[in-house]
Amino acid sequence: MADKIVDANSSNTKQPIIRLVPFNVPFIRRRQTAVVFMWLVSLPATLFVFFISCTIVFFLPWIIAYLLFVLFDIAPENGGRRFEFARRAPFWRWYADYFPIKLIKQVDLDPTKNYVFGYHPHGVISVGAWTNFVTEANDFSKLFPGITCRLLTLATNFNIPLYRDYLMAQGCASVSRQSCENILRKGHGHSILIVVGGAGESLNARPGVYDLVLKRRFGFIKLAVRNGACLCPVFSFGENDIWDQADNPKGSKIWKVQKTIQKLSGWTMPLFHGRGVFNYNFGVLPHRRQITTVVGRPIQVEKIENPTEEQLLKVQEKYIDELYNIWNEYKDIYAKNRVRELTLIE
């Protein structure tokens, strides 16, 4: 059994209940913490700004016009409105250095092809996916020149005022089928990243555990086959390590409530905790634990407009094999503290 994952700040000596952050922490680390905190509260912060604006009479005509624009805006279904200056903002490097987060490519990718990247595991909030595919913190465009990748998320996120525009500026788009096909048909190099396990997999995210929801996920495979796009597995070692989560075994009351919320809203509510801004023991900030994202070898697929179940199963088998190849090659380097081996639970 592997050793239990511990925070880098812990030791064998007995620790106080609340371990406060010392005053002499270097400024660079405080800067990293501040950026991660601001990212974490981006949703409530944008909502706060919007609702405060609604209380100011001067802004009301502009708000009404904006809401009408949102109502008819089809950008989330057509690749969003990506701005390179937002992706390349220098503070994203501070964000990546907080954990730190690394990006590794196994092979070069042909920029004349389109790719459907499958990201694993989901983690609590898919931090590795955001850092490596939504920002240039780790120079994605230099590692994969000619590849324009968009991170796909729930369409409901684009109904949230201001937050939707923040997501699109970073290069996010809707995960609907129409959105996926619109992006893949834009031309050479246009690609999408789908966090395959979805909200349900986030309920299994805990340190040292890599339990994936994949066996019954055929939508992204069918999408690749229908559009003749290459399937490319992406695995992030450490994605599940950065937060702790309350025990929620299948069938428990907590689990039932979480699944009910997921069915009603499409969202889920992992009961997670990490560290605080001024302490190391409790809070919503993630722990400073390394995440290493490996982009695997692409799988060439034959374009078939209406693939059969048997054809999809064959492609899925190749995909799972390639995912396990990544795991077996890097697990003893980046998952030394794993509790068990990579497991496909659904």
Structure description:
The protein has one domain. Helices cover 38% and strands 14% of the residues. The protein has helices at 27-40, 42-54, 60-72, 84-87, 91-98, 127-134, 140-143, 163-170, 177-184, 198-202, 219-227, 253-265, 309-334, and strands spanning 101-105, 115-120, 148-153, 172-174, 190-195, 211-212, 230-237, 244-245, 272-273, 291-295, 343-344. It has a seven-stranded mixed sheet with strand order 1-10-7-2-5-3-4, with helices on both faces. A two-stranded parallel ribbon has the order 6-11. It has a two-stranded antiparallel ribbon with strand order 8-9. Strand 3, helix 8 (163-170) and strand 4 (172-174) form a beta-alpha-beta unit. Helix 1 crosses helix 5 (91-98). It is globular, with a radius of gyration of 21 Å. The model is unreliable at 1-11 (pLDDT under 50). Keywords: Acyltransferase, Endoplasmic reticulum, Glycerol metabolism, Lipid biosynthesis, Lipid metabolism, Membrane, Transferase, Transmembrane, Transmembrane helix.
| Tertiary shape | globular
Low-confidence stretches: 1-11
Give the biggest sheet.
7 strands, mixed
Spatial order of the strands forming the largest sheet: 1-10-7-2-5-3-4
The string of secondary-structure elements, in order, is HHHHHEEHHEHEHEHEHEEHEEHE
Key traits:
346 residues; 38% helix; seven-stranded mixed β-sheet; 14% strand; two-stranded parallel ribbon; 13 helices; globular; disordered N terminus; alpha/beta
